[in-house]
Structure formats: structure tokens, C-alpha cells
């Protein structure tokens, strides 16, 4: 009996000791990519550490040795760094000074021990020319009879600068493999995303010889799947909205969607078979990019620009990261998990919407309004930059 | 095979028969009186027959009967009467006899009640299921009765979806079900005229497949005989087997049965009226069944109403009895899905069948020395079928384009809303005419008896329904469907002849029984031996050699060896023979919302004129023996069914104009036969919209004789007899079955699409490739099962309890490859095509590769593939891949299932029955290691009860 009492006492004491939560010290060392400062350490930049379970965030700045230290409770942590710096890099063989946007992340690191040292690698992207994805709507809507309606998908692209930009040659593409609760097969032997981004189904290209389709500062244009006034047309869906304001529609030969003569057809490059343009209603990572050459036939017939999906049969069009202007990792909301499709240099975070045919879009947050011109927030982190489950507002530029 | 040879054989049989008839024989007269064993009351209209002679009569008002001119020698006499146990007597006739027969009322109070399938003893390998067994199963349709056949597994009652019959195979199969004849009172049921093919899949369609077993209620059935082996030459239009159903005949009290399980309620009524002064007997029965698929909502329903009247009488009882049976049936079923108020879309489906069946059977026992009897069975069935589908057609791609031209050419189409209600009605009126005339001849010498059957059969199946109709502006499922009348579909006729000799030879103490027959089926005859369809000759042979047959004092009391060979034939059905026209539409001008133009190409004739009947060859060998009280039957079989019907695709090139879209704000219009134009708003000139000619591969489905199904197996049935002290008998049955299915002789075309670039625009183009065979591999399924029935029967309290323990010892399936269709591994493929770098993205062991043999581009010419062609990447696209792990065998471990059934008689008037399936709730989740998924094989626990009352 006495033994039992001791045992209980010991247990009580043991329980007692858990009353005060243990915290752990750990440090993160941030380093540049190999071709910047020879892969040296990043000094005096902010690192954000976020508890995966509680979403609590801690921030600390790196010291001159590139190290930031944190004192946190045990758990899984996402670790992020994102900053801009001017550097001289080689572009097409010539040294050029560019504003580079550095991004790096570690996901779900387990901190349950003191003095863990983690190395945070970074990637960079060259500050984009100024086009950003203002709104992307892939979910589709429901008719009053509760049937699905998917003809009203669109992407809206915005000139986020104070200069006139030309949309001629701008491309829009969807990324292959949207089953984002599973890891993507498009990885190298280390499990890292490939340096090129796989596109399938189509590439939509704004025609024009260079200065045919200007977009004024603070203005946008819409690429619609079908440029119909979906809401008011008797053959549309009263629960949808008007896309007759679209600049372009994605009509293909023998396609499923009607061809509205008042909305011109964008140039469609078909990549994989089928008459449907595959934009996944559950979530679709997308990019906008420019091709390196105006000779489309040369680009699209060059076998080096294509790759067969590992373990699959789709022959996807591969876009190098350097071609990309903007991208959003719009992933599927699924309780089995989430695996990123876009590299950190394009989108360090990800964003999810409610589901199929829910009639919701993802839309970029307004950063500020200067002289009546809206500037959208663009930190290359869609988790921060985008609002999700929004009622679609094609053509409307928010001012707050 | 040469038709002449069989013609010759037929002639020889007839000549031999004629010679026999010259010999005179000793004849005796058999008479007697039939009484109820308990009350001593005379039994009227009891059926008295010598089955091997094909003669019979019925008892008169005093219970008396007489059969004259019975050849002397050993015979089996059988006396049957509704509600009584069958009485059989083996006797050797030398002089006139007068029998005093007592029949026992069927009751659980009797000593012997059989609730399992019994081995049928003469001719074809068959199982016989009698009324007691049907009652004890508490079946709601024929499907559940089939559980009693060795090798079949226990099944919960299901009236929610069509049920297919399966014999000697793992799983069900469309061609097997189609090839199983279901014969009710001598008239085969036919589903061959059913054309109710649903476009939407809203109602379950059984067109082109066998009879839906749900439609057969079992309450008025006296006995069911299932020919699993080689059927008599008398039975045709089948490949897999035959189910013979005999309905009740004779006077009986009012009887009402109520049956219920969680999904289904059933009510059945029956009565047999004896008319005075030997004017015959009328049997009346009716049933009502109502079943809901889900217990939580009443939207999905199956309803069945059946009523039948049968008049039976025997004329000229004392000379040459003539048995007449006239029957009229009414049947109605509704299989439907009502609008579920929880759903916004008001969708509804139903399939309604109403059927009137009438039939006349006559058996004239002439009883001459050689000509024993002549019989006629004639039936006419007319069915009114109505299928209805109301669907909300919604196109998630926005506005619909509705194309309705029924002729070739370029026509204006309509823009329609993205969702609209479509209502399709399928009006089918299949009819069947059946007539069989047969005669039985008998000849006996000292050691040999010949019982010869000669006959002819005629079948006509047609359909004169209005067919598929709908409003063409609200069509179902978008493009390429049009209404179709059935009235222009020709009828399907079949003329058959059959001859069979059942020879019984006494060889010392042993006995050799040979049943040899031949059957000719002329499908779509154009004369007796001329045909527009197909002509087939099917030999059938069953030999049984009884080596030992002796009394109770021996350990080995009985030993019989059996073997058989037979060929069987099943004609294609109307759906196979006369498929619908095929409509192909291409939208070629689109200017929303002003004008949309489409080109239509109609394939008027999609028939396969080479489509023949399918055939099965069956071999079997078996042994029957009785060791002490243990009766066993073991049968090994091999059956190969070839030419089973499948759908395949045929491709053709369709040409059309591909118009450019003019600028916005114009009003383009179509001038029929010329093209699309608009008027220039400034100049007023008529401008033709420019176009390019383009072409596209289109396809339609074709029926082919291409499915092969091989059934191998060993089935066993061991009856251990009864342990008297425990009042319990044991019966073990089951089978090892292996079923292999594959396709041959069906070149399989596939389209390969790829993208071409020209200047700054890309275009999708395609070519078609031919594979030597659909899929190229077969599937094999294998299973060993045993069902142990422990039957405890206590006559004193009139109670019967059956505990069935079913064990599936193992279950295995795999994909099989054949030498004719080569599957390459990646290494083999690279070697063969001499491309070491081919498919560099593929894992080494992940795929098998299947090569097409030829291709056809827009030139329409078939090009043989050469190895070099596969250097081109577009032809590499044509190589089919199959995941290799799918070819691995999957073996599932043993699984046990226990069912219990209880029946009890209460007083003379009531009988209560109850069953509980899988009452131990053994339903493990099992890992399917091949697919990495979990499966559950056993049925969910299920229970039901019924009560039968007699007044």
C-alpha cells in the first residue's frame, strides 16, 4: 500500500512539473542563393516563425552572421523570410542591376529541443514588370436548380505601376496536377520542385505585335473562359455575373463554350487533348508569364520546352521560373493536407478557396491608393496578399 | 460443320425408329386410386406420369386413374399434387396392376422435408428445388432461390437493381445471363425483344441481357429445376444453362402469405378450385411486392404485381388421356425513382412493364406401342414497356447548342439555356410467340429401351413500340441523340428441330444410360435449311453408367459415373441485330447569340451483318456415389462460350466547313446548301463567311461476336444424411470455380489526338490506331467455397431450423495475357523498337506496353505499323500502357458467413418463417493489397420473416 502512495506522489509531482510550459531556444541561419554574394549569410532581415497549431507568430532579425534566435514553446513551425534588395545579376549574359525579391521558407519544423539550428535557404525573383493577378476565379457557380455552372471562370490582370504597360504577348497558364493533397510528381531526386513549371491543357496568349494592347496604370483586363453576360443572358446563370466586359475569351475549335463575337478570342495554344479548358474548380495554381520569343511555332514545337509527367503520360509545357511575371498557388482545400505547386520565388505561401462551384474567387488585397490609383499588395506571398472566398468582382478595382 | 451430315443423322434416327415400331410389345394397364394419407379422401387431379415414357394422366373425381398400354418392364411412376409430397414408385411391370396410393400432405410434421437443392437423377446434370426449399429460403425473387445451387454464394434480398442469373461462374456476366433460358411451364421467357436502352442511365436497362430475375416471383412455384450441365436437345436458345419453373396445379385451400424485411413488403394469395363433374381445376394466384432501396427515404421503389389463372383438365381419361393446361398471366412492375424533395432539381425516372402472357399446353398420351405421346406448348406474350426519364440537363460549360437534324448536311442549330428539363419516353412493345410440337416414341427390346423425342420449335420476337421519343428542342444529354421508333425493327424468327434418344441398356448388373440428341437452330430462317441469319447444329450427349446399385446392407450402395458433351447456341437479340442509327454533329459556325450552324452526318446503317449466334461448348464428367448414408455428387466441368456479344467502335471521317467568326455587330445567316453569309452594313453587299474544309474522326458502336468466357470448375454436393438422435441432417455443397473472360477477334480502334502548330496558331488533330484486340488481356476469377447446412427438423413440434455456414476458402483474381497479344515490358519494348531512350520518364517496372498494329490518318487508308514508325513521338503516343501491378494476382483470405433460417407450422393453418443473414455480423475490412484499398466482402446483417395462412 505504501508503495502505491509513493507512486501516486511521484505521479503528482511529475504532473506538477508540466504546469509550466517548456520553451526552447532555437536559431535560424538565413543564406543567399548560391549565385548572390556566393551564397553568403543574410544580415539584418526579419524572419517570421509561425506555430502551425496555434498560428502564433514570432519575429526576429538576423544578426551580422545571418542568425536570428527565437524562444518558443514546443511545436511545429513554419519559418519564412521575404525581402527586397538591389543586386547586380547577369541577364542574358549582361550584368544588370535589378531589384530582387528574396523568399525562403521551411515548413512544419518540429521544435522540441533546445539549440536547434536551422538553415533557411532563399530563392529570388526579379521584381516583376508590374502586371499582377488582381483576381482569379476558378470555382464556378451554381444555377438556381443547384446544378454546376463552370463557364464563368476568369482571371483579371492589373497594371500595378504608374506607367503604361503593354499586354501584347502576355501568357496565362494553368499548372499540371492539382491534386494538391498529394506531393507533386514534378520534383527532382531531393524532392525539391523542378526549376521549370509544368503547364497543361492550354497556354492563352494575348495577341499583338508589342504595343497593340496598352493597359493604363491602375487599369486591368479580363481573360474569360466565355465572354458572356452570364448573369443576364437567358442561356446563362442568374447566380453568375457579367463577363461581356472581358478583353478576351478562350474559344477553341470545337470547344464547349459559345463564341461571343463582341469579345475577341485570345490566341489559344493547345497543349493536351480535350475540348475543355481544364481550370480546376477546387483550386488551380496559375501563372502569368512571357515567352522569350515571338516565334510561337518555334517555342511550341521545341521538344526541349516539353516534358512528360514523371510516372504519367501528359506532355507538359515547361516554363522556366525566369519567364514568370506573377503566380498564385491556389491549392485545393482538403483535410488530407496541402503540398505547394509553385516555387517560393513566385509564391512563398498559398491560398485556398471553399470548393467546387461555390461561386467564390481569390482577390488581391489593396495596399494603398495613391492619387486615386489603387496599388495592390504584392509581397510574393499569396497567404498575405490575397483575400479568399470573395464574391467575384470582375472589372471592379477596389479603393480600400 | 456440314449441315448435310446432320441431316443424314436425323434421317437415320427416323428410319431406325420406324423399324422399331414394327415390333409388337407386351402391354399392361396401370390403374389405381389416390387418397389423402390422413383423411382417406380421394385426391382429384393428382398428376400421374411415367416420365421416361412421356405419358401421363390425372385422377378423376373419385381419385381414380388408368393408364393403358404401358410397356412391360421396369418403370418409374411419379404422382404429384399441389401441397402434397411427391410419390414415386420404381416397379417392374409384368401384368396389369391396381395401385392404392396414399399421398402425404406437405407439412413440417412429416418425417422427411428437403430444404436443399436435390440432385436431379435423369439426363442433364441438374439441381431440383422443391416447394419446401423455396419456402424455407423465403425468397422474394428467383435470384435468391439460385443461392441453393452449389457454388453460388449467399445473398441478401435485393429488389433495387436488376439481378442476373449466374451458373457455374464467379460473378455475373451479361452474356451468361443472356444465355440462361428461363422456362415457365414449358414456355421460355424472352427478353430478346427488349429495346429499353436508357440514354441517361436513369432506369436500369436489361435490353440485350438476360431476364431480370426480380420480375419472377416465386410464390406460385411448385418446383424449379436448374440445368447446370448439358441440357436436353429439347431446350435451345441458351448457352449457359436453363431454369425450368413449374407452377402449382390442383385444388388447394385459400392461402395468404405476408412477408417482410427492412426494404420489402410482400403479399401473396393463392387458391385452387376443383370444378365438379370432372370439369377441371382452376388455379388462381396473385402477389404484390413493394420494395424501397433506402430505408430512410421512399424515393427509389420497385413494385411488382402478378396475377395468374390456370385451367387444367384431362379428357379421355380412360382411353388416351389428353391433358390440357391453359394459363393467362398478368404481370406489372415499376422500377422508379421519384423526385427527392431534398433535391432542387426535379428529376424522375421510371421503368414500367405490363405483361400479358397466355399459353396452352396439351399432352396427348396416345400410348400406342411405339408412339407414346404428342404434346404441344404454345405461348404468346405481349409486354407494354414504358420508360421515362425527366432530367435537368445542365451544361456546366454555359449555353447549350441544340442540334436536331435527322439528315445529313449543314443546318441551323439553336442556342439553349445552360440547364433545362428534358423528358424522354421509351415506349416498347415487345412480343413473343412460341410454339413447340414434340412427340415421344418408345421402343424396348430385351436389354435396351429407347425413349425417343422428336420435335420442332418456332419463336418470333418483335417489338412494335413507338420507341424513344422526346422534344427535340429539349433533348437528353446534349448532342447526338435523336428520337427512335421501334416500329421499323424487323422481327427475329427462329426455327428449330430436335431429336434425342434416351437409351437405357442393362449390362449385367450395371446399367448404361445414354441421352444423345441433336438440335438445329435456324435463326432468321429463309427455308428449313436456308437462312438469313445463322444456322447451327448442336449435338448433345449425356452418358451415365450405373455400376453399383444395391441395398442397404452394403457400404457402397451406389456408384454412377457420368459424362457429357454438348454444344449450345444463343441467338443475338433485337438490340444486337438492329442498333440505332448513329448521329454525328459538329458545330461549325458560332456567333452568339445570333446564329449557330452545325453539320450533321447520319450513319444510317450501323448493323453488323456478320453478327452470328454465340455458342458454348460444354464438357463434364462426374461421379455419384452413396457410401452408407452419405450421398455424394461431384462434377467437373469445362465450358467455353465463344462469340459473346460486345460493343466495339467503328470509325469514319466526317467532313465539314470550319467557318471563321466575322466581326461583332453583323447579322450572319445560313443559306441552306450554300453556307453562311452576312450583308455588309456599309456597302449592303452579301459577303460569304470564309471557311476552310476540315475533317474529323467520328465513331459509332458496333456489336461483335467477340467475348469468350471459359468456365472451369468442380462442384460438389454431399448429403451426410440424418443423425436420428439429434434430428439433424448435414449437407455440404460448394464448388471450385474458375472463370476466365477475354475478347478475341475484335480489332479495337482508338483515336490519338495531338497538337499541330502553324504560324501562330495551334490546332488539335487526330489519327486512329488499331489494336489487334480490345484490351489485349483477360480476367480470371477463381473461388473455392463450401456451404455447410445443418438442418434440424423436429416433426413433433413441426419446426425446422437451418444453420448455413458459408466459407469462401479463397478468392483470387488476376489479369491474364495471351501469346497472340504481346505485352512488352519497358526493356523489351526498347529492344524491340530499337530505341534505348524511349519513355525515359517511365519507371522501369511500372507499365506494360501494348502496340497498335496499324493506323489511319486523314487519308483514310489503313497503314501497317513498321518498327521505324515508332521513332516519331506522335506514334509513341499511340502505344497503350497498362499498369503492371494490375496484372498481379490478388488472393483474398478465407471468409466465413453464418445464416440461420427457422420455419414452424402452427396448428394446421399457419406457418411462420424467419431468417437472419450474417447474424454474427462478420464483416471485416480487408486490405486489397494490389490496389491498396479496403474492401468488405460479406453482406450486411439482414433479416426477414413471413407468415403463411390457409383457410
Molecular structure report:
The complex is a heterodimer of chains A (400) and B (951). Chain A is mainly beta. Chain A is built from three helices and 29 strands. Chain A has helices at 2-16, 296-301, 382-385; strands at residues 23-31, 46-51, 57-61, 67-73, 75-91, 94-111, 116-121, 123-126, 131-137, 141-142, 148-149, 154-159, 165-166, 170-175, 196-205, 214-215, 220-224, 248-249, 267-270, 286-290, 306-308, 315-320, 324-328, 330-331, 351-352, 361-364, 366-370, 373-376, 386-390. In chain A, strand 10 (141-142) and strand 11 form a beta hairpin. Residues 12-16 of chain A have low confidence and may be disordered. The radius of gyration of chain B is 32 Å and the shape is elongated. The interface between A and B is large, with 53 and 51 residues.
Q: Can you give keywords for this protein?
A:
heterodimer, A: 400 residues, mainly beta, 3 helices, B: 951 residues, 22-stranded antiparallel beta barrel, six-stranded mixed β-sheet, 54 strands, 5% helix
How are the elements arranged and paired?
The complex is a heterodimer of chains A (400) and B (951).
Chain A: H1 2-16, E1 23-31, E2 46-51, E3 57-61, E4 67-73, E5 75-91, E6 94-111, E7 116-121, E8 123-126, E9 131-137, E10 141-142, E11 148-149, E12 154-159, E13 165-166, E14 170-175, E15 196-205, E16 214-215, E17 220-224, E18 248-249, E19 267-270, E20 286-290, H2 296-301, E21 306-308, E22 315-320, E23 324-328, E24 330-331, E25 351-352, E26 361-364, E27 366-370, E28 373-376, H3 382-385, E29 386-390
Parallel strand pairs in A: 1-7, 17-18, 24-25
Antiparallel strand pairs in A: 1-4, 2-3, 2-5, 5-6, 6-8, 9-12, 9-26, 10-11, 12-17, 13-16, 14-15, 14-20, 15-19, 15-22, 20-23, 21-22, 26-29, 27-28
Chain B: H1 3-22, E1 27-36, E2 47-50, E3 55-58, E4 64-71, E5 73-80, E6 87-93, E7 97-103, E8 118-119, E9 126-130, H2 131-137, H3 142-145, H4 174-178, E10 180-184, E11 187-188, E12 221-227, E13 241-247, E14 252-260, E15 264-274, E16 281-292, E17 300-315, E18 322-337, E19 348-365, E20 371-394, E21 400-402, E22 409-416, E23 419-428, E24 430-444, E25 448-463, E26 467-470, E27 492-507, E28 510-525, E29 531-549, E30 556-570, H5 574-577, E31 582-591, E32 595-603, E33 614-627, E34 630-659, E35 669-671, E36 675-679, E37 686-688, E38 691-723, E39 728-743, E40 748-758, E41 761-771, E42 777-794, E43 799-817, E44 823-824, H6 826-833, E45 847-850, E46 854-856, E47 862-864, H7 873-876, E48 880-883, E49 890-892, E50 895-906, E51 910-917, E52 926-928, E53 933-935, E54 942-950
Parallel strand pairs in B: 1-7, 10-13
Antiparallel strand pairs in B: 1-4, 2-3, 2-5, 5-6, 8-9, 9-12, 10-11, 12-13, 14-15, 14-54, 15-16, 16-17, 17-18, 18-19, 19-20, 20-23, 20-24, 21-22, 22-32, 23-26, 24-25, 25-27, 27-28, 28-29, 29-30, 30-33, 31-32, 33-34, 34-38, 35-36, 36-37, 38-39, 39-42, 40-41, 41-46, 42-43, 43-49, 43-50, 44-45, 45-48, ...
